[in-house]
TrEMBL record:
Broad enzyme group: ligase
Similarity-based family: Belongs to the class-II aminoacyl-tRNA synthetase family. Phe-tRNA synthetase alpha subunit type 1 subfamily.
Record's subunit section: Tetramer of two alpha and two beta subunits.
E.C. code: 6.1.1.20
Tagged with keyword Isomerase: no
Organism: Desulfovibrio litoralis DSM 11393
Regions annotated as coiled coil: none
Record: residues binding Mg(2+): E244
GO CC aspect terms: cytoplasm
Residue ranges constituting the Aminoacyl-transfer RNA synthetases class-II family profile domain according to the UniProt record: 104-314
Protein name in the entry: Phenylalanine--tRNA ligase alpha subunit
Pfam families: Phe_tRNA-synt_N, tRNA-synt_2d
Catalytic activity: tRNA(Phe) + L-phenylalanine + ATP = L-phenylalanyl-tRNA(Phe) + AMP + diphosphate + H(+)
A GO biological-process term: phenylalanyl-tRNA aminoacylation
Amino acid sequence: LIPELKTGLENANSEADLEELRIDFLGRKGRLAKIMESLASLDPSERPLVGKTANQVKEALNAAFDEKKQAILALAQSNALASFDPTLPGRRLEQGSLHPISLVMKQVSDIFATLGYKVAQGPQVELDKYNFEYVNFPHDHPSRDMQDTLYITDNVLLRTHTTPVQMRTMLANKPPLAIISPGKVYRRDSDLTHTPMFHQIEGMYIDTKVSLADLRGTLTYLIHSLFGKERKVRFRPSFFPFTEPSIEVDISCALCGGKGFKNNEPCRVCKTTGWVEILGAGMIDPTLFTNAGYPDDTYTGFAFGMGVERIAMLKYGITDLRMFFQNDMRFLSQFASV
Ligand code: PHE
């Protein structure tokens, strides 16, 4: 049996060949098994000797198989190594980057962190009272209209701004308060320059002697940190239900510098007015302090709010709002080094 196996093993070149041989010799119905069966018909006096020999044969067969198996494995390994070319260039791992919206939110949060502001968050599915009522929107205010706001029920809606986060923060805490609230907001609006979901960052500072001068200083610092000190900043009177007085903030246009272009082509960033609106702000209306349960005439504060997409477009020169939502790698990967 052993010499027969040796010839068989010499011709076996793969693990499959080897397995076939093993079944033939050592399998349950294999050659060795047949010999073992025949032991039963032997004279009892002969059995021990023949049995012992059969076991030795079995061991020898097993050893021969193991040896050949090692040899086949070693060969396979050295073949694999021979076809491996260590001089080939490696495969580069793709490195992710932050979305421009996340980048701007992070930059603004970092700037306000240096001024001691904390980040506050609130639900995107909001109650009417926090989104509108407590922040001084009259019942017939146009933005409460079904055409502007996405309602879930009469009293539940998708927040249209992050101002409810300010109201919730005021209700839960006593001044001094300095927070910003970055997050998603929703409006019933969809065209080239509006998406039904967009991002806002609002902020507020409340203490006993906060003035409009503090607001101007803080926002100027924000704008210079975001866009560079060479930008001019302009404050204009405006109106919001939750602030009095209210202002809007413009920055000077970096594209045409307010001078327009030689051929009279209108500037696509500022329409050649020289200014771009980037923020709404104002002194918090005392009605909100009353709604928050604060004592009369104790606190003053300012609030401001900005659209993140708008800031990102101005900062990075993005001309199409849809870019933010298409997840095109050619667009997104440009922000890897920012
Ligand atoms: N909530 C305003 C908006 O959504 C922005 C704003 C916030 C204005 C705070 C003034 C003060 O447009």
